[in-house]
Amino acid sequence: MRPDTPAENVDHNAEAARLERTADRYPEDAEALLLQAAAHLELAGDRPAASALYDRLLAAQDGLENPFLVRALKAANLWEYGHEAEARAIIEGVRVAAPRDPAPWVIVAEALESHDELEQAQETFTAGARVLLTDVAEPPYSTHPLLFGRHRVRRMLGLAHDDWDVLADTLNASPVSLDELHDPKRVWSLGSENPAELEAEISRLRAELGTFRAALSRPFPVAVLHWSAEELAELLAGYPSLSSEYPSHEEHLATIEASLRELAASGTPNLGIVSGTVPSYEAFAASEGMSPAEVSLLPQYATTLAARGRAVEWPPQRGAACWCGSGRGYGECHGG
Question: Is the CB of residue 329 less than 8 Å from the CB of residue 321?
Fold first, then answer.
């Protein structure tokens, strides 16, 4: 979500302005683009301007895919330039709302942690884990930072391991254990004159860097294309030859779920669903110099939407609505 390129290598103000212009041209992607622009402004040190972008997004809250993510980012940003009371109020609002997305939980908990509110950070990480991971057999990849952050804060507080700490240890892909990575005494080893201690700390730092790089390089989801009933009807009315690909909307939905389950069974990670619209698809076809009636264009369109951050995670979080748009819970609909 946040650019990590050093400020000396990037003109963050110029990049933010470019992203804002792009958001004006592609309003369907404005949320993702403006969040990136706000991140560049924060890196440039212009935190008030970043807050203004968060406010711009929240002013159109009805159209936001993840308003709690925007609120969480705004709270973290506000606290960094002296608006602690407002930031705390927003953080409390996010906690009370109990979003089904792990990102807002992680952001507000880390904001508390960075300002030495360790007890509250631990409570926030725990509340998020309770909402998202209770009775979940295998935590989705997106929830791993929630468990790792909770482990880190509890380690700093000197709390005994519980079941979720043990789970975090098992999910940790680093060659160095979380207990070692999150050891509060590590800062002292950097000033040690003992070569063995310094070498051990260098190994821990390399392991952390490797994990961070792996997270950054994690590809966008392997995404399957979904059409709502209205969009599919419009698509087939304009391009009847695609009816061989989509015999009916019900079969289309069943095929999506079956394909994703087959991919999951084969060990493919990071699965998602992207929803298409006919105008967007026609514009994509024009950009590729191809006819929208070309079946081979459909997976390319899905990949492009995923690369633009349009994919939603599959399977949905426990208790979340089904991806098909029926309004029912996933477990009562296609996840049944």
Answer: yes
Residues 269 and 141 sit within 8 Å (Cβ to Cβ): yes
- Cα 325 from Cα 333, distance rounded (Å): 10
CA 33 remoteness from chain centre: 14
Tokens encoding 122: 């631990």
**Averaging pLDDT over each range in 60-64, 198-202, 233-237, which range is the top one?**
233-237
Which are the contacts of 138, defined by CB distance < 8 A and separation ≥ 6?
none
Helices vs. strands in the chain: H and E counts, helices first: 16, 3
Task: Give, in order, the Cα–Cα distances in Å from 157 to each of 119, 122, 160, 166, 275.
Answer: 8, 9, 9, 16, 44
Q: Is the dihedral of CA 298, 299, 302, 307 positive or negative?
A: negative
Q: Residues 250-293: pLDDT tens digits?
A: 999 999 999 999 988 888 878 889 999 998 899 888 888 899 99
Q: How far apart are CA 133 and CA 61, in angstroms?
A: 27
Q: Whole-model pTM?
A: 0.64
